[in-house]
Amino acid sequence: MAAPTTTVVRGRIPPRTRPPRRAPRGRGTGARRGRFRDLAVLMGPWTIGFVLLTAGPLVAAVYLSFTDFNLLGSPELVGADNYVRMFTADPRFYRSLLVTGTYVAVSVPLQLALALLLALVLDNGVRGLSYYRALYYLPSLIGGSVAVGILWRTVFGYEGGFNQVLRLLGFENLPNWVDNPSTSIWTLIALNVWTFGSPMIIFLAGLRQIPMELYEQASIDGAGPLRKFFSITLPMLTPLIFFNVILQTINAFQAFTPAHVISGGTGGPARAGRFVSVLLSDQGECSLGLAVASLGRGGHG
């Protein structure tokens, strides 16, 4: 009896007649353990930092918000009393919310618009691009420092550089922009807009990833610069715009040092620059109301 033959069809690989070899028992488990060990070594430092510096303080803050704690004794649970007092008996909280919301709603769009504008300019083949990127990114690194806050307070003071320039242009009866209730918030907004370097770098990187073929095809179809911007550039940058909006909004809500330094730690005249973060600091440091510092109210009792 003849042995069966395997017919090979052109373009196809004949089926395997021998089952694949299995790895020795234990080798796969050891490899998985090795990968898990490597992952633990790489993720360990980040995990420890996240638990100790972010998750732990967050859980502790939530717990303390339901207690009466002034750092001089043990925390005592008071339920939701701190929240009730915050929403019903502390008008400063709503005022600080209004100031913070105005700051975020105005400064973030202006900052991103300026960042995108400069990114478009730098994307057009400017010589010395690396130097401009470093120069424009510098304010993002130092904008939240105490030194810049002191400098900003000096520049926008009555005898500061800003008023000196306006006087040279013929303006008179200029105010102290920092100590004026109607203008102090705008000095803080200007400082946040000035720190446009980080979103600008992100926008510039996104512009470099847009295929030039899209612009060439649009030019053939007769599209002008504005049409190219709204039909190609803006849609292609949508993910980065969303990312920058989220990131800069979070940073704006967390702003503390500039407002604290420029306003002298009090929120300025009529508390026009008293952000929620400044109110929390005032309650936590001055009133020792640590249990409800995040609620803008002193300790219970």
UniProtKB/TrEMBL annotation:
<dbReference type="Pfam" id="PF00528">
    <property type="entry name" value="BPD_transp_1"/>
</dbReference>
<keyword id="KW-0472">Membrane</keyword>
<keyword id="KW-0813">Transport</keyword>
<keyword id="KW-1133">Transmembrane helix</keyword>
<feature type="compositionally biased region" description="Low complexity">
    <location>
        <begin position="1"/>
        <end position="12"/>
    </location>
</feature>
<feature type="transmembrane region" description="Helical">
    <location>
        <begin position="228"/>
        <end position="247"/>
    </location>
</feature>
<feature type="transmembrane region" description="Helical">
    <location>
        <begin position="134"/>
        <end position="152"/>
    </location>
</feature>
<keyword id="KW-1003">Cell membrane</keyword>
<feature type="transmembrane region" description="Helical">
    <location>
        <begin position="101"/>
        <end position="122"/>
    </location>
</feature>
<dbReference type="InterPro" id="IPR035906">
    <property type="entry name" value="MetI-like_sf"/>
</dbReference>
<feature type="domain" description="ABC transmembrane type-1">
    <location>
        <begin position="97"/>
        <end position="301"/>
    </location>
</feature>
<feature type="transmembrane region" description="Helical">
    <location>
        <begin position="185"/>
        <end position="207"/>
    </location>
</feature>
<dbReference type="InterPro" id="IPR051393">
    <property type="entry name" value="ABC_transporter_permease"/>
</dbReference>
<keyword id="KW-0812">Transmembrane</keyword>
<feature type="region of interest" description="Disordered">
    <location>
        <begin position="1"/>
        <end position="31"/>
    </location>
</feature>
<feature type="transmembrane region" description="Helical">
    <location>
        <begin position="39"/>
        <end position="66"/>
    </location>
</feature>
<feature type="compositionally biased region" description="Basic residues">
    <location>
        <begin position="13"/>
        <end position="31"/>
    </location>
</feature>
<dbReference type="InterPro" id="IPR000515">
    <property type="entry name" value="MetI-like"/>
</dbReference>
<protein>
    <submittedName>
        <fullName>Carbohydrate ABC transporter permease</fullName>
    </submittedName>
</protein>
<comment type="similarity">
    <text>Belongs to the binding-protein-dependent transport system permease family.</text>
</comment>
